[in-house]
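Why predict the complex rather than its parts? Because the way molecules touch one another can change local conformation, and only a joint prediction can capture that. The input here totals 545 residues.
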Amino acid sequence: MSEQNTAVTMAQIIPGDHISITTDTCTEPFWQAAKEHRLTACQCADCGHFRMPPRPYCPECQSKNINWPTLSGEGTVYSFAICHQSPYPDLEHFTYVPVVVEMADAPGVRFVSNIVGVDTAKVEIGMNVKVDWNPIKDGWVLPIFRPL
Amino acid sequence: MVWEHQDKTAIVGVGATPYYKRGESMPRTIYELVGEAIMAACDDAGLSVKQIDGFAYYSGAMAGYTDKMDTADIMEMLGIPEVTFTAALTSGGGGSAGSIGLASAAIIAGDAKYVVTVMGLQQAKQRLGTVFGALAPDPINSFLQPSGLVGPGHLMSVLARRHMHLYGTRREAFAEIAMSTRANAANRPEAMHKKPMTLEDYFNAPMIADPLCLFDFCQETDGAVAVITTSTERAKDLKQKPVLVRAAAHGGSKDWGRAFAWMGMPDESFASAGNKAVADRLYEKAGMKPDDIDVALLYDHFSPMVLMQLEDYGFCKKGEGGEFVESGAIRYGSGSIPVNTHGGQLSEAYIIGMTHIREAVEQIRGTAINQVDNANVALVTGGPASLPVSGLILTGE
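Output of the joint prediction:
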């Protein structure tokens, strides 16, 4: 009963001119790095524990000292959804694939974003992906993922 | 540790407005709906509304996600002379069952005598199904919202897929939850959807957030439901058979935390309903085990969360929820643990968990439409969502 449509349906990019974010003191370094196409994650400078989204305290050791290491941008799909309805009322329906990605070099960090440029039928848990960049409103840039 | 206050409080009144499809309660106001539910609950209990002296809300006393309920407004509207307790559990629908624990805490502490718990919602301004997409992004949800996971069902579809991946859970299991719940709604006058659902109907429904289709999503309803809790001692003088609060628990583990608004849960918690810690504590407080439950009213905003709650509450082993429901175990009349005998939020109506408390009370009173034979112990749960999640065990005398 669960057969999939056999036609190829590509996972599309959500138009960046519809996406906005806001930042605070704690999260802004992540987004500033993204503007330079550099993927980072919030890491405790004392115990090395990663946490995302960035928060003022390390939940492991309560330190407030933070590193922003440059990540390789490579990871694996942890889980995903396939959506066919536009998330924005003024856009026609299109197919996009929200994805949760575990990063190869930041243990415990998962990014929630989209995988793009792939047949939705080929997306699977465990597949290798690499970061790409989607310019969004107000000059910010959003990390998204493509198959590696 | 077994709770020393078992059975010292009781639900004595339940009241509700009609249930409306999203947006169709207009031009009634949210306070009119809330007032009607409270007045009906007082009438059911045999109380004057002037005797109400406490309010125990959940969801931060929000009415849905866009309106609020304020005790002073309700007092002014209904002529309640004085309150001695007014408080709310934090976050959202996860606290629905736990709000009865909050009411009980007030009563046991001597801070109030007759405590109202109420939820009302209208969705003309903003439907819940896409509420997260409509919110202005804050610095934390800026790490989630751009993904296009616009509503709670979209977010939970990601958890459901992980469960399917880890344990081989099939869409047929989600279908069985949707179909069995629909079957329970067939004879309920209030139900929004009564038409029987076949497996074919389920698989023909449009996918909303694959692996979840339309029938995995709950109703979007307007309406209000109120319940009144008091001491078991005072309950003896009222109109209805008291429905005793054996135990209630709310809270949860950091491993679940903000749950699908975070997506950072360790693997064993990710594909769960986040209720395990609360479930274990609830059973311990109640001095009971899953076998003791006669009827389970499990928060069913999305069908996979029923499956994962069956695991968290120990009706089957972790990972075996799919097989369990596909065996027919949750069917009313034939299964080992009848679930959502009122048609749940999937088919009857969605008042953010309150319909489950209403049904549990009716089951224990023996007045439910789909009455479970000799039902004496009912489990009610709050919605798998950002903490707190919650559970409640109600019993007869």
